[in-house]
Structure formats: C-alpha cells, structure tokens
Design goal:
This protein is α/β, with parallel strands linked by helices. 27% of the residues lie in helices and 13% in strands. The chain is elongated, with a radius of gyration of 21 Å. About 12% of the residues have low confidence.
C-alpha cells in the first residue's frame, strides 16, 4: 500500500494527510446509484483531458443553485480516481488543501493553475490524479476534482464510502470566506439523495484522522455548512461560452466546426503524431496517427486565416500554427503550449461568434 502523504507546519502539526484505501482495483460500492455521473452540474465544456460522461441534472432549480466547473475547465491531465463506485456515499468530509491561498478576487486562470497543482500532488503520490471530489476557492467558485462516482484519496480508509469537499488554502491560519461557506452549503444540500444518502453526516477530516484538517477556522464553520442553504456563483465560462483557458480540446473544436461549417463532432481527425508532444495545449479530441491525412476543420481554418491553397492540407503543424498566431495577433512561435495565448484569443473570438 502507498504510504500516506502528510503536510506539516513548521511546528510539526499535521495540517492534512492524504491516503489511499487498501483495496484492489475494480468496481466497488460507494457512489451514486442509477445515474451517469462525471462532470458536474454546470459543466462548462472545458478542453483539458477528461474521459467521463456529463451527469444528468435532475431539475432546472438544482442547476441554478449548484454550479461546479468541469474537470475539463481547469485542465485535468491524469486519471479520474482508481475505482468506479456504486451506491451513495454514507459520509461527507470537509478538508483544506494547504496549498497556495488565493485571494477572493483571484482570476479563473489562477484557480485552474492551483487545481492542476493539486492534481499533480495526488498523481505523484498515488498515481490516481486529484484526491478531492470538489474544491472551493475563496471566490466561492467550485471545481470538480475526482468525479462523484470515482474513488479519490482524500480520507484514508473511507475513500470508498465517503465524498470530500475541499477548501483551497490553509484554514488553520486563515478564515474561509462567506462565499466559500455558501458554496459548500449548496453542494452539501444538493448531494443529499444524489451523491450521498440524505442523512450522511458532514464531518471534518480531523474527526476520523490524526490531523488538524480542515483547519481550526474552517472546522468552526462546519455547522454553518451543514445547516445553511447557500448558492454557488456561475462556473467559469457560463452561460454557454467556451472557457478561455488556452487549451484546445473537443469543446473548442466543436465551436470552431460550427463557425466554419464543417461536421460538428469535436474531433480533429488524422493529425501527425510527430507534432503531439511539441503542442501540449492540444488536448481532447485530437486524433494522432503516424500516417496523417488531415482534417476538414483544419483545412477550413487554414482557408479562413488566409493560407495559400497549396498549404491547406488539413494538418496542424508549425506552419499552420504560425499562420494562426499571426492572424490572431499573438506571439508567433509555431507552438500551441499549455494556456496558449493563441488558443485563448481563438476562444474569445469563438465566444464572440467569429474567427
């Protein structure tokens, strides 16, 4: 079994401890029964890797009250937990991440960066991606971590039968914002009879483990979360707009296909695998092959940005990327990096209905 991961302060106090359950891989009890679960209510159609299916929204009122940005919106890159869980959770635990503590007016890009940092911790320690189910920032915005029906590594020995609500930052030394408490209350209420049983208790991680988690200031507010109604702010990218995150995946491709009048399937077909690793900002929906034939949407884009007819081969590469960057007025280097300025400019244009 992988050893637990402890985060301590300068005096040796364990502020948070992450641990996996000592069980084999495979289907297991402990997640929502009878519904397709994955990216959450308020899925924003983001573009980083994700292989999960959007969950059904029970009614419009619930969708309005609880808005959680998808894994794709922040750029998830690693596995979505290690097990598919069935049956509702029987406990809910409040955690704090003890990572960078952002301000309440932090940008969506800064929050997405912190989500990827959290994911890297879980991946490096356990190989299963981000540890927590949902993460709430001081802004009150909430982001899906490990999906509700997948097992994380948040509460050792209880990961299979519980779910986690994590506050980003250190709440041993900092007070949670009212927006965070409101969001957590809305999520806890929404999860009853959906992600956990109606009578599933809400507890602090410290109640079942040798840790100060979720920090004394947040622990003091658990009753407010348990009894509050609350609401969540709109997810990044709502309503109906692309998340401007600089990752070009299926959502961006679909909008581009709509704009250019090609088949709308979110797929950029038959692209040379030679250019894949050099362009990490190209994420979901890109088909990388050794003998590329090209894609209609890329050929249409090449025409739109003014490339000569002899250059319109439907294939992404340095020549096409440079032409796109010049067209968009961003730095020209022939590469689509993570959080690419060119992709952000493209996403803004697509949100405005133009290329």
């Amino acid at each position: 079994m992988v050893e637990p991961y402890e985060i301590k302060d300068d005096t040796g106090i364990v502020l948070e401890v992450l641990a996996a359950d000592d069980e084999p891989q495979g289907d297991l009890q402990g997640g929502p029964q009878g519904e397709t679960v994955g990216e959450t209510v308020g899925d924003t159609g983001g573009d980083a890797p994700s292989d999960i299916v959007p969950m059904a929204v029970p009614d419009a009122q619930a969708q309005a009250a609880v808005s959680i940005a998808s894994r794709g919106s922040w750029g998830a890159r690693y596995p979505d937990g290690d097990l598919t869980l069935t049956g509702p959770a029987v406990e809910v635990f409040v955690h704090h991440s003890v990572t960078a503590h952002l301000s309440a007016d932090a940008s969506i890009a800064a929050e997405a960066e912190q989500m990827r940092a959290l994911e890297s911790v879980g991946q490096s320690r356990f190989g299963t991606g981000i540890s927590y189910n949902v993460v709430i920032f001081p802004s009150g915005r909430a982001y899906q971590g490990v999906s509700w029906n997948r097992r994380g590594t948040h509460t050792g020995g209880r990961n299979s039968t519980s779910r986690s609500i994590c506050f980003a930052g250190n709440y041993e030394t900092t007070t949670p914002t009212s927006a965070q408490i409101s969001t957590a209350a809305a999520i806890y209420r929404e999860g009853k009879d959906r992600w956990w049983t109606r009578d599933a208790p809400l507890r602090g991680h410290r109640d079942v483990s040798q840790t100060a988690c979720p920090g004394r200031h947040l622990y003091a507010r658990i009753d407010d979360i348990r009894t509050g109604s609350g609401s969540t702010p709109p997810s990044p990218g709502e309503p109906d707009g692309l998340v401007v995150d600089g990752f070009w995946g299926s959502a961006t491709t679909r909008r581009l296909q709509q704009e250019l009048g090609t088949t709308v399937d979110g797929v950029v077909s038959s692209q040379s695998v030679y250019w894949r690793d050099a362009n990490p900002g190209l994420t979901t929906g890109w088909q990388w092959v050794s003998d590329a034939l090209g894609s209609r949407v890329i050929a249409a884009l090449q025409a739109r940005i003014g490339m000569d007819s002899g250059q319109r081969d439907g294939k992404i590469g340095p020549q096409t990327i440079r032409a796109l960057q010049r067209h968009l007025g961003t730095p020209v280097d022939g590469v689509i990096s993570r959080e690419s300025q060119a992709v952000m400019a493209l996403q803004r244009r697509l949100n405005a209905g133009r290329v």
